[in-house]
Amino acid sequence: MLSKSFRLDPRKRQLLTLIPYLKKYQARVIIGATMVLLTNIVAVVSPWILRNAIDQLYLEISRDILLYYAVLLIAASVVEGLFRFLMRRILIGVSRNIEYDLRNDLFSHLQSLSPSFYQRNPTGDIMSRATNDLSAVRMVLGPGIMYSINTLFTAVLTISILVTINLQLAILTLLPLLAVSVCVKYFGKQIHKRFERIQEQFATLTTLAQENVSGIRVVKAYNQEEAFIGRFQEANKDYVDRSLSLVRVWGVFNPLLTLLLGLSSVGLLWYGGRQVIQGSMTVGEFVAFMAYLSMLTWPTIALGWVINIFERGSASMGRMNQIFQSRPEIRDERPSTLSTLEGHIQVKNLTFSYNGAPVLKNVSFEIPSGQTLAIVGRTGSGKSTLVNLLCRLYQVPAAGIFIDGNDINDIPLETLRTHIGYVPQETFLFSETVQQNIAFGRPEASPQSIQESAKISNIWPDIQEFPRKFETFVGERGITLSGGQKQRIAISRALLVNPRILILDDALSSVDTETEERILQGLSGEFSNRTVILISHRISTVRMADQILVLEKGEIVERGTHDDLLKTEGHYATLYERQLLKKELGME
Question: Is residue 337 part of a domain?
Answer without folding.
Answer: no
